[in-house]
Amino acid sequence: MWTVTESPVGPLRIVARDGAVTAIEFTPFRDGDGRPRGDRDDGAAVLVEAVRQLADYFAGRRTTFDLPLAPDGTDWQRAVWDQLRAIGYGETASYGQIAARLGRSNAASRAVGLANGANPIPIVVPCHRVIGANGTLTGYAGGLDRKQLLLELEQDALF
Question: Exposed/middle/buried for 106, CB within 10 Å: 0-12, 13-18, 19+?
């Protein structure tokens, strides 16, 4: 099941299965990618709560999310996504720092980047908080404009 909500980064499609969020998708939505979504259900409790928490986040009233999550990925991807959730609101980390936190050398930075790019639940699992080692913004599945907007939103809310 899924719903769509408006946001400062454009419409977001929130997908859930078995009472847990499985994906948040940026527009343009890709329906032919083989991911199961089911029917639209704007009244499903988990989706209503996800929309509420995202609205609070975008309004600067929420710095963490408390939603049941069920991202589909490999063990490595899930380990990286767990590290992403440990990056605090308004903070950033480099790909190399994430690799180090996972007990890997800087050589694993590329693998971290690939897992980061495969994150199916952006914003809630804050892949936008990962930057290049030199502090530059690097790739983002939603586009660099969205990444910059999300980082600025968090910085503005802190001050």
Answer: middle
What pLDDT, in 10s, does the model give residues 40-90? 999 999 999 999 999 999 999 999 999 999 999 999 999 999 999 999 999
pLDDT digits (tens, 9 = 90+) for 22-40: 999 999 888 777 676 889 9
**Dihedral (C-alpha) 82, 84, 87, 88: value to the nearest 10 degrees?**
-90
143 is catalytic: no
Residue with tokens 């490999």: 74
Tokens 């009244």 map to which residue?
Answer: 43
Please tell me the class of the 75-158 domain.
mainly alpha
Range(s) within the chain of domains with CATH label 1.10.10.10: 75-158
Within 10 angstroms of residue 66's Cβ, the number of other Cβ atoms is 8
Q: Strand, helix or coil at 20?
A: strand
Catalytic hit among 127, 131, 150, 151: 127
Quote the pTM value: 0.92
Tokens of residue 51, six digits: 């929309």
